Amino acid sequence: MIAIEKALEEIRAAGIAVSTNMEDRIAYCKDYNPLHLPKLLRREFSAMPDAVVFPKSTEEVSVILKVANTYGIPVYVFGGGSGVIDAATPYEGGIALSTLSLDQIEIDEENMVVRAGAGVVGGRLEKILNHRGFTLRHSPQSLYCSTVGGWVATAASGQFSTGYGNIENLLVSLTAVLPDGEVVTERATPRRAGPDLKKIFVGSEGLLGVVTEAVMKIFPLPEEFLTLSVEYDGIGEAVRDAKALMQLRPALMRIFDDEESLRYFDSESFTLIAVFEGKAASAKLKEARNLVRGRVVDGRAEKWLEKRFDVSDISRIVPLGFIFDTIEVACFWKDAERVYSEVLKAIRSVEGTVTASAHASHFYESGLCFYFTFAGLPADIESYYFEVWRRAIEASLKNGGNLTHHHGVGRLRKRWLSAEIGGYYPLLRDLKSVLDRRNILNRGVML
Q1: 312-412: what fold?
Q2: Where do you find CATH 3.30.70.3450 in the chain?
Q3: Pairing of strands 105-108, 113-117
C-alpha cells in the first residue's frame, strides 16, 4: 500500500488527475464481460483498482507508466470498457488508466485521413466526420461506447468491414507509450517498406504498451446506398451466394440463420442481406440480383439496419437469472457449414442452454466470420458459462474454425491461444518480457 500511495503522490505532483473515490473505482472495476453483471446486481465486485488516473496527453501517459514501472504498480488500460473478454478487469488492483481524456480529433481532408486520440468514442468521431462529408466506415455494434484506442488494442472489426476492411486496414500510423514510459511514434505516410512495427500493438490488448493516438483513413460519404435481401432454406445455400457476391465487394453483408431471422424479420427462413454503396452501387445491385440463387425479398436489410445497435435485451433478461453472450470465430469457406453446425451443437449440448443461434457477420475472399449467440438459465451460472465456452471453442478448432475473429483473447480465451498461434506464442511471451520487464501492463491478459 505504501508503494501505491507514493506512486499516486508523484502522479498528482505532475498535474495529472487522480481519483480514489469509490464511484470512480467502481466505474473502472470491470469490462462488459457478462459474468460481471449478475455480481453487480448482488453488489459484488470481481476486482477493484486502488485508483483511477485521467491523462490528457501522450506525455501524461508516459509519466504514469514511468512512475508505475518504478514502483511495480499494475496498470490496467480502459477506453470505453465495452470489451467482453475480461481483458481490462483489474484483478490485481493498482491503477486503472482511463484514455477518455485523450479525445482530440484532427481531420486532414486533402489527404483523406483523421488523427484521433485513443479516447475518442466512435459515435462522436463518425458524427464529426459525417458533418464534414466523410466517414470512417468502422462501425462495430459498440460504436457509441467503444474508443479508437480500444479498436486498435483489440484488432476490432466493424459492420462495414467487408467493403472497407478492419481496423488494421484503416490504420495509417500510431503513437504508443511503452511500459517504461518511452513514447514510440512514426511519420504518417500512405505506405512504407520495411518492418511495420506498429502492428505489434494491433490486437495486443494493452500487454505491450498504451495506444494514445491513431491516424486512420477516411472516405467520402457514399452517394448511393442500396440494399439486397434474400431468403434460403438452409445455411449452405446462403454461404454459397455470399461467396459469389464477394466478387462485387459489398460494403456490408450478413447471413442470419433461421432462429435469428425469426427474431429480426419474423421469418423462419435463412436470410442474407447486403449493402452496395458509392457510384457503382446500382450496377452492383443489378448484378447481385442475377448472381444469387435464393429468393429475393423486400425490406429485411432495412429492418436490421434500424435495430443493429440495440442490445437492450441483455439488461432485461440478466436480472431474471439468464446468462447471455456471443462467441465469434472465423473459418475458410470449405469449413463454413461444418463450423456452423458443430459449434451450435456444442453450445446446445450444455445443460441449461435455452437458445443458441448464429449469423455470419464479416466476409473475405477466403472465408467468413460466424457470430454465435447463446442464452442459458442454469443452476450455476459460472460453471455453465465456462462449459459453453469450452465446448464451443474446442468444436471450432476441431472443425476448421479459429479462436476469435474480433473480440480478442483477454482472459476468456487465453487457454487456447498457444494452440491457435503455435510457435508465435513463445515470441509473444518473449516480447512481453522485453518490453514490460516488471509486468505492469494488463497482468493476466492473453498470456
Answers
A1: GMP Synthetase; Chain A, domain 3 (3.30.300)
A2: 225-307
A3: antiparallel
CB environment 59-81: b (16+ within 10 A), e (fewer): ebbbbbbbbbbbbebbbbbbbbb
How is residue 226 written as a grid cell?
A: 442500396
Contact 35, 125 (CB under 8 A): no
| Cell numbers for 16 | 495529472
SS3 content of the chain, % helix, strand, coil (to 5): 40, 25, 40
pTM over 0.90: yes
CATH fold of 225-307, please? Alpha-Beta Plaits (3.30.70)
Class of domain 106-220 as given by CATH: alpha beta
Mean pLDDT of 313-318: 76
Q: Is the distance from CB of 176 to CB of 211 less than 8 angstroms?
A: yes
Q: How many CA atoms lie within 13 A of 141 on its CB side?
A: 16
CA distance 162 to 405: 13
CATH 2.60.40.640 fits 1-100, yes or no: no
Minimal CA–CA distance to 92: which of 444, 447, 446, 397? Answer: 444
Chain centroid to Cα 198, Å, comes to 18
Alpha helices (runs of H) in 209-254, residue ranges in sequence order:
235-245
Spatial distance between the Cα atoms of 32 and 358, rounded to a whole number of angstroms: 21
pLDDT tens digits for 435-445?
999 999 999 99
Contact between 62 and 93 (Cβ < 8 Å):
no
Q: Which of 383, 384, 329 is nearest to 354 (CA)?
A: 384
The position carrying cell 461467396 is: 243
- Please give the average per-residue pLDDT across 148-168, as a whole number: 97
For 387-432, what is each residue's pLDDT tens digit? 999 999 999 999 999 999 999 999 999 999 999 999 999 999 999 9
